Every structure is written in C-alpha cells, then in structure tokens.
Amino acid sequence: MLETVLVTGLVIFSISLLLCIWRALKGPTLWDRVIALDSFGLNLIGFIGILMILQSTSAYAEVVLVLGILAFVGSVALAKFLERGVVIDRDSH
Fold it and tell me: Can you tell me where the transmembrane regions are (predicted)?
C-alpha cells in the first residue's frame, strides 16, 4: 500500500516537473518563469525525497541539501535582480 502511494507521488511530481518546465519555457512574463523555476526546484526536492523513501536509502540526502540551497539562493538573487536590476549592490551606504 505504501509503495503504491509513493509511486503515485512520483508520477504526480513528474507531471508537475514537466508543467514547470513548460511554464519556464513558455511563460508569458518573466515573473511566471521565475516562479516556475522556483517550483521546479521544490518539486525536484520532493521527487528525490520520495525516491529515497522508495529505495530505503539516504544516498541522495546531500543532493537534496544542495538543491535546497541552490533553489533558495537562486530565488533570492532573481528576486533582488528583478526588484533593483542588480544582484550585488556595491553602493549600499
């Protein structure tokens, strides 16, 4: 029963990942693309998490951690770039 739920979760995450890729490529606005890339990172973390449970291993734990850090830093950098036009503000006094 648990395996069926996990496989169903993998299928749902796969569909969600494909929809995020489609939105990132065809998004009408830049904001749609940013949100799609952020959602893609979060869905990929969930997908790998379910895969780890299904395989009864913790081999991908570091991958999940690095993906989480990259998704967070990427989201913050893109948000700052879209707000001010620069990522690193050198004249911030």
Answer: 6-25, 34-54, 60-82
